[in-house]
Amino acid sequence: MLLPTHPLRTAADLDPVLAAIGDARVVLLGEASHGTSEYYTWRTALSRRLIQEKGFQFIAVEGDWPDCFEVNAAIKQDHKNYDSPSRLLQTFNRWPTWMWGNWEIAALIEWLHLHNRQQAPEHRAGFYGLDVYSLWESLQEILHYVEKQGDGAVKAAHRAFRCFEPYGNDPQEYAEAVAFVSKDCEDEVTDMLRALRQQVASSHADGLLSREAEFTAEQNALVAVNAERYYRAMIRGGSASWNVRDRHMMETLTRLLDLHGPDSKALVWEHNTHIGDARYTNMAREGLVNVGQLAREAYGPDNVFAVGFGSYEGSVIAGKKWGAPYEVMPVPQAPRGTWEEMLHSQLQGENGLLFSNELRQHPDLQQPVGHRAIGVVYRPEFERFGSYVPSVMLERYDAFMFIDKTRALHPLPTHADEHMPPDLYPWTE
């Protein structure tokens, strides 16, 4: 079976991708691991062109809101208020620190700041986090905000903070303590979100930068609500915690699009397991949804364009267990019959681009095929037993970038904070 492919050598080879994206409002850019250099550099190359040539306003990533917003605020200033991009990215000190604290992202941040200096403040490209893990960091940000504002949300914020205080900064301790009892902090964080929303509704902030300040206060409250729900669901097991997380990320993406106006356009950087439509994988049998599915349902398939990524062999940054120091690990050659092996055989070691609308002439591709997914925890010797997601590729993505041989990401020397989300993922990521 000979598949239609396009060459992928330089940024100029991305022309067919831009043409296929057309007027889509949301472009989802995946990755088959969180530790592969080429996934980050090719996403950067495509994102730069989409920002410059098609007016995309922001990049939203699989990262925590407070850390990403610190980067967002810095890259929108006329002059640097940070020593260097690498120093700025040390804000990402939650394990796995390498996901956003790496030299590839430092190069993107440097470009975004230079690009933004040439734009009016209202048109500067943003960098935001979609994830739900930052419970305590978001609570602390809310306290700083309401105490500075001196508004009616102060009491609600202090009640929420006091509710979590007995558990220190450990979300797993909180989750284990309240998962099977009636006493939890759900009412407190919900009341806090309601109070902040009332305050924002009565405000008359003008201009994107002014609206962002209020938006981030409300967003931190939303993170607190959904993080509390997420950690409780993780202890109980099943698909609930995954779905809480991805629905939160989709809700955040929708809020960001609304913040930037009816003509806004978003770039999303997340793992393939989040951006590739879950309905066309075995995730659906587990009752799991993801951002790719939810975005298509919310905005329509013509307004959402998903790009998957993958490789045949190489190296990757990952940990051997949750919380372990990162290592450079080998990525073995993909086994026979997998998507990656099929592309390697056809392209004979070259990189390539594929488009789903060109693959529909091949009825065999309507059947699921194994597609590699490497998480932050990885054991190469066991890869073939759990790292391949059965996927109908031409439905899961709109386009696919295949890099035959990849290299490990280049992490920054960031010291990881001792507190981290517990390792209770219900799915490979």
Characterise the protein shown here.
- This protein has 429 residues and is of the alpha/beta class.
- It contains 16 helices and eleven strands.
- The strands form two sheets. Strands 1, 2, 3, 4, 5, 6, 7, 8 and 11 form a nine-stranded mixed beta sheet that branches. A two-stranded antiparallel sheet has the order 9-10.
- α2 packs parallel to α5 and α6 runs antiparallel to α7.
Explain briefly what this protein structure is:
By secondary structure, the protein is of the alpha/beta class.
Q: What brief labels describe this structure?
A:
429 residues, alpha/beta, EreA/ChaN-like  fold, 2 domains, nine-stranded mixed sheet, two-stranded antiparallel ribbon
Based on helices, strands and strand pairing, what is the structural class?
A: alpha/beta
Query: What is the makeup of the main sheet?
Result: 9 strands, mixed
Radius of gyration: 21 Å
Helix content: 40-55%
CATH homologous superfamily classification of the largest domain: EreA-like (biosynthetic domain)
What proportion strand?
A: 5-15%
Number of helices: 16
**Tertiary shape:** globular
Spans of at least 5 consecutive residues with low confidence: none
CATH topology title of the largest domain? EreA/ChaN-like  fold
Domain count: the total is 2
Instruction: Give the termini separation.
Output: 30 Å
CATH architecture of the largest domain: 3-Layer(aba) Sandwich
Give the overall average pLDDT: 91
> CATH class of the largest domain, anyone?
Alpha Beta
Order of helices and strands: EHEHEHHHEHHHHHHEHHEEHEHEEHE
Number of strands: 11
Protein name: Erythromycin esterase family protein
GO biological process, one term: response to antibiotic
Pfam families: Erythro_esteras
Organism: Hymenobacter jejuensis
